[in-house]
Amino acid sequence: MNKTTNFYYGTAIIAGSFLMIITMALHPAGGTFEHLLRMSRMISIAHVIAIISLPVTAFGFYGLNELLKKHTLFSQFAFITFLFAMIAALFAASANGLVLPMFINNYSDADPETIKIVKLILNYNTTFNHACDFILIAGICVAMSLWSVAIVKTGALPKWLGNFGFLLSAIACVSLFSVTAIIHLTGFRLFVAGYACWSLLAGRYLSVIGELVR
């Protein structure tokens, strides 16, 4: 791999991480049917930003994989797992940010009986979204753990970054299977904050490698 491209890969990770942070900052909390109607535009904006971030982030982590894969197979499996997580994120963002607003706006003037049926369908959408979030969090935890192994084994990036990734993954995994409800909005925001922090650091160190050889 041409090492000068590390700068662009690292920058892509940083950009994708910031886009995810913006998404969570704009993401409105759930609520009543009327509240969702009022916030439908903001819901769409937040999730469109999330969708944009996915290929940007995937491109960046492809570069991290290229840096590490020559030394360990952990990185290659991490990247494949990460792509599965990004697919789950795409489904979740599409369902919540595109399908939901378009669907509920069709019933803005519906009678109470129709709205009751709509709410049942929205409950299904919420359950589907939680399932996607579960896959997303689990996939990122596995990928971050494996990349952390590769970082510690190779020393291509600071080893403390690998140890930090282990710690974040362990906390997220425990939370995922506990009563802390990480798949709900507050818990998910905390997870994204931790993941974004690790990603920003990884992106910065990767871009520094690129800067040194530019």
Give an overview in words.
This protein is 83% helix and 0% strand. It is mainly α. The protein has one domain. The radius of gyration is 19 Å and the shape is elongated. It has 7 helices and no strands.
Task: Identify low-pLDDT runs.
Answer: 210-214
How would you classify the quaternary structure? Answer: single chain
Biggest β-sheet strands, sense, barrel: none
Helix-strand sequence? HHHHHHH
- Helix/strand structural class: mainly alpha
Please give the alpha-carbon distance between the first and last residues: 14 Å
The helical percent reads over 70%
The tally of strands reads 0
Structurally, the number of domains stands at 1
- State mean pLDDT (0 to 100 scale): 82
Number of helices: 7
**Overall geometry:** elongated
Instruction: Work out the radius of gyration.
Output: 19 Å
SSE inventory with pairings:
Elements: H1 6-26, H2 33-38, H3 40-68, H4 74-105, H5 112-154, H6 159-176, H7 185-213
Helix pairs in contact: 1-3, 1-7, 3-4, 4-5, 5-6, 6-7
What's a quick, concise take on this entry?
By secondary structure, the chain is mainly α. The chain has helices at residues 6-26, 33-38, 40-68, 74-105, 112-154, 159-176, 185-213.
Defining traits:
214 residues, mainly alpha
